[in-house]
Amino acid sequence: MRPTPRSLLRILVPVKRCVDYAVKIRVNAQQTGVETNVKHSMNPFDEIAVEEAVRLRERLKDAVKGITAVTIGPSKAQETLRTALAMGADDAVHVETPEAAIVEPLAVAKLLRAVMDKKGPYDLVILGKQAIDDDAGQTGQMLAGLLGCAQATFASKLDVDVGAGTADVTREIDGGLEQVRVKLPAIVTADLRLNEPRYASLPNIMKAKKKPLEKLKPEDLGVDITPRLQMLKVTEPPKRVGGQKVDNVDELIAKLKKAGVLPGAA
Amino acid sequence: MVRSALSPLPRHVPLLRHGFANAATSFPGSTAPPSAPPQPQLASLTPADIEHFLSFLPASQVQASLAPGSTAQADLDGYNTDWMGKYVGRSRCVLRPRTTDQVSSIMRHCYARRLGVVPQGGNTGLVGGGVPTGSDEVIINLGLMNQIRAFNASSGVLTADAGCVLQTLNTFLTSKGHVMPLDLGAKGSCQIGGNVSTNAGGLRMVRYGSLHANVLGLEVVMPDGRVLRGLRGLRKDNTGYHLHHLFVGAEGTLGVVTGVSLLTPPLSPAVNLALLRLPDYAAVLSVVGTVRAKLGEILSAVEYFDETAWAVVNGDGAAGAEVERQVFGADTVPPGVNLLIETSGSVREHDEEKLTALLEELLDGPHVLTGSLAQDETQLGRMWDLREGIAEACGKAGKVYKYDVSVPIQEWQNVLSTLRQRAAERSEGLIERVVGFGHIGDGNLHINVVCGRYDKAIEQLLEPFMFELVESKGGSISAEHGLGVQKAKYILYSKSPLELELMRKVKAAFDPRGIMNPGKVLPAVAVGEERGGLEGVLQGALAGAGAGALEAGK
């Protein structure tokens, strides 16, 4: 990535359209994935990412040059961009993929890199730590790897020093909270407690209609999105069967032996 | 003698004193009148009755504090107390049948013995109709009768036990591509039998109509134990009087509803919810007509709630402002009142086009300051909580006197202002908030008067003032909550003596021994009322106004 003039921050926020968080997920009849004929909306972690970008602009004011929202998906994914624009993004990019296409995290990361090359430079990329449909949690990290730049994942707090060209991120990790300082440009993935996203206000929804939205195709960006993984089967977890009560320890041992949990004849 | 002294009879004199109900509706802080004796024709509960119930019901389904029952009286408190904690009975026997036959056997016995019976559903009623007034009534709680009997996917007709919880039915229906035609804040606890018995209205009545429109038939156990099997589930059936309509809204005073056949509308895949902030109620009035006209058939709910309702749900001052910022998506939100508008339809693009056109027009105009649109299901639920959480928030903020009235929407602000002024001038600080909200789509205003405590002084300040106010606007003193125990005595503020007379005839025909939910809906007959006419009513009122038991009609 070309070094950016340190006086202004350009932020990219990738967002994903997934099955709505409140919808009960069911495996489809062919056992190849989940039923998708249900309500979709923006990945909640991406909502948090958009909110964080907007809050950064509110704090840093003129130091932020602009916020671009980008999504990779079928034509309906455009709705997600509308939401991002209504929340405060300035412009949007829609990389349109075929309706039934499966776009894996590596393909997404490659497409994002290409968008950044084409429309950038961007100093900060904020995206959700994972999408709630596949829970992969890989895109941000892969993007950082492809770009060879810093990454700070599972962010629960973000502060940017534009002049110094660094970002201080508090990360949620197993042991507690970790604080890191990364040099810009950097990838930050948003965790749940980073903020509480605002709702889309009507005035902003109306304004969003006039904001620029560019459509691109993977071919335009020179990226091959053919999946490298083959989904063999998707099933629901086995239904819980009822337990049994036993009268005494001897019976317990006999039953455990019979079930093959303990060695020996029952 | 009395007649000549007064002319003409003022309609707003409380004509029928309901001593029986007053006895049991005493709550802390009030000076309770001496307990009224049970109505002469109703019996006292005896151990033999408990034994009889135990002879055909499993012990787990009989909870009695009277021997041979072994439940502690305190364990029956939940059944004896209403949702608001305002009406407290002392029943010693709660029965929980699982089948219609069990209900029939219970009723046969109660009829023979002349025991008072209180049918009870989710116990979420707001006028004390679902709890006993004394200590001899038998509570029949339908909570264990909760089977979905059938669903016809092509007609959308659902047949269900009366004890099915509304939300459970809705969850079942949405998996089949349908929805319940009604929705209310109590959906997690209220049961369809109770909804039917109170003709519950709720949030979607503006779109799907009342239960009268959607109930196709009922299964009812009559007071004498015979089962009225009316679950044919036919859309059209003009063969004689439409009896099931009498049970809809009868609040358990004509029979026990045990099964419901209900028409359910298809689930709309496209749902939108917009929250609007307007400067004042005048702006709301200017906008409501446009909303209905522009949205037409896709409008599925339109709800009003003012700044007092916002404050009680979200907190006063800074806390409330924080929620405002998030939900309206703006740094600063102008103060004002709120409208929630929901659309439901089959084609997303069509609905969005209509809604967007409307919202643009409203934003351009002077009446709407700002607003927001839910972007996903979670936001949708959260926005609905702003409106559906009002009743509960009021209950947590203090002791509530609820008024649920139908008045023309042009009068809503007048009613609220008049009441607020009265509270400010005369309640000596006992009334802390007067919260206004309602189903503006069908003219039903809710007023929650939140006080530090229940107090007879407050009650006297509010009643019959509120009912006189509503009567002066030609409205209904109980739009959807029913009369229960709270408003039985005020029925003449909204119905004429002839209507009351005809209601009594129906009650006598269906429940000749008067065992069904005694003390509810219809006020006890005053002495002399049998003579009929205003003279008889007045004489009865004056006679009954003194102490002593009222002689109830046969």
Task: Tell me about this structure.
- The complex is a heterodimer of chains A (266) and B (554).
- With 266 residues, chain A is of the alpha/beta class.
- Chain A is built from 7 helices and 12 strands.
- In chain A, helix 2 crosses helix 5 and helix 3 crosses helix 4.
- Chain B is of the alpha+beta class and 554 residues long.
- In chain B, helix 12 crosses helix 16.
- Chain B starts with a helix and ends in a 10-residue tail after the last helix.
- The N terminus and C terminus of chain B are likely disordered.
- Strand 11 of chain A pairs antiparallel with strand 13 of chain B.
- Chain A: InterPro entries: ET-Flavoprotein_bsu_CS, ETF_a/b_N, ETF_b, ETF_beta_N, Rossmann-like_a/b/a_fold.
The total of beta strands of chain B comes to: 16
What would the principal axes of the Cα set say about the shape of chain A? globular
Structural class of chain B: alpha+beta
Q: State mean pLDDT of chain B (0 to 100 scale).
A: 88
Whole-number total of structural domains of chain B? 4
Strand content of chain B: 15-25%
**What percent of the residues of chain B sit in helical stretches (DSSP H or I)?**
25-40%
Largest interface: A-B, 22 and 25 residues
CATH topology of chain A: Rossmann fold
Number of domains of chain A: 1
Q: CATH first level of chain A: which class?
A: Alpha Beta
Keywords (chain B): FAD, Flavoprotein, Oxidoreductase
Protein name (chain B): FAD-binding PCMH-type domain-containing protein
Cofactor (chain B): FAD
Catalytic activity (chain B): (R)-lactate + 2 Fe(III)-[cytochrome c] = 2 Fe(II)-[cytochrome c] + pyruvate + 2 H(+)
